[in-house]
Design a protein that fits this description.
The protein has a single domain, classed as P1 Nuclease (Orthogonal Bundle). It has twelve helices and three strands. Strand 1 and strand 2 form a beta hairpin. Helices cover 53% and strands 3% of the residues. It has a three-stranded mixed sheet. It is mainly α and 292 residues long. The chain binds 2-acetamido-2-deoxy-beta-D-glucopyranose (4 copies). The site of one 2-acetamido-2-deoxy-beta-D-glucopyranose has 5 residues, from loops. It holds the Pfam family S1-P1_nuclease. Belongs to the nuclease type I family.
Length: 292
């Protein structure tokens, strides 16, 4: 038993360590976004979401929120839908920036969010499996909130900027934002416990951020999402915080971590609130929220 578990652990660690440079919050980030979102669903939306979840999710939306990364090889065209890089002017413009490397329009994270929102809203569109639409949507709403998903095209959203995390680990800037900041925050502030971190961030939505929360979820359009606004915010945060003072070979330590961690936690909160708002809009918003 013990040996099997150990072997499984070694296998998992090996797989994770050898995963290619990716454009996505790692599991922890996506898990928190979806965990927060599920708690902000109306009872009507919650029932609809639960009925669409695959059996292996055991009723937890958060369990499915890294599916889009895990299955990327199965859907090669979906790679472009995880991000929306820009020419480096700290802004996102749909017409200019939302395309894949072959120039195909709409193939970026904002296009993906709008696509799968429309697919779920349209109950007469049986061509797209609604379970798959839900899992893509939940993942991409997380992704668009990671500032380096709307980073510079030149450096692949920070993937080619090699940095040293606290002198000890060679990593790259994109990965610092996907993973290293979250893992250090978890260790230093939350007893290395993802559910504590999630709960503290979630609680702050009705406390520290209570005066901003309505604005986060506001979206005037009934048919489209406001994901282009979220991408614009990320592009600005990429310049103001993520790229700020960083060069090839930089050593990132406490100064960098303490400027980044409040941004990471806020983006996770915003991602959760907005994913819930999108799902509430799709599945009916006349019912009462469960827990706000
Ligand atoms: C929209 O969804 C369909 C079905 O999964 C997919 O083939 C298409 O590439 C998607 N387009 C965008 C922009 O997300
Ligand atoms: C809904 O889906 C059907 C079938 O794919 C399509 O013909 C129709 O145009 C869609 N309606 C909207 C409003 O997108
Ligand atoms: C809670 O909100 C306050 C006010 O915006 C913010 O400064 C703080 O970083 C937030 N705390 C967490 C854990 O995200
Ligand atoms: C990196 O290591 C050097 C030499 O050991 C040390 O002086 C410096 O404070 C370290 N920097 C960080 C950010 O940990």
């Amino acid at each position: 038993m013990g040996l099997h578990l150990l072997l499984l652990h070694v296998l998992l660690v090996t797989v994770v360590a050898r995963a290619p440079a990716a454009h996505a919050w790692r599991k922890e980030g996506h898990y928190m976004v979806c965990k927060i979102a599920q708690s902000f669903l109306t009872s009507e939306a919650s029932a609809a979401v639960t009925s669409l979840l695959p059996g292996w999710a055991r009723g937890e939306l958060a369990e499915t929120c890294s599916w889009a990364d895990d299955e990327r090889r199965r859907y090669p065209w979906s790679g472009a839908l995880h991000f929306a890089d820009t020419p480096g002017d700290c802004q996102f413009f749909y017409d200019r920036d939302c395309h894949n490397t072959e120039g195909k329009k709409d193939m970026c994270v904002v296009g993906g969010i709008n696509n799968y929102t429309a697919a779920l809203m349209n109950s007469s569109a049986p061509s797209v499996d609604p379970t798959i639409s839900l899992m893509f949507l939940a993942h991409f709403v997380g992704d668009v909130h990671q500032p380096l998903h709307c980073g510079n095209t030149d450096d692949y959203g920070g993937n080619t900027i090699i940095v040293y995390w606290y002198n000890t680990t060679t990593t790259n800037l994109h990965r610092v934002w996907d993973l290293d900041i979250i893992q250090k925050a978890m260790k230093d502030f939350y007893n290395d416990d993802l559910s504590i971190m999630t709960q503290v961030i979630m609680k702050n939505i009705t406390e520290g951020w209570s005066d901003e929360e309505r604005e986060w979820e506001a979206c005037p359009s009934r048919t489209k999402t406001c994901a282009d606004r979220y991408a614009m915010e990320s592009a600005q945060l990429a310049c103001d915080v993520a790229y700020a003072g960083v060069e090839q070979g930089s050593i990132l330590g406490d100064d960098y971590f303490f400027s980044a961690v409040p941004v990471v936690q806020k983006r996770i909160a915003q991602g959760g609130v907005r994913l819930a708002a999108i799902l509430n809009r799709i599945f009916g918003e006349n019912s009462r929220p469960q827990s706000i």
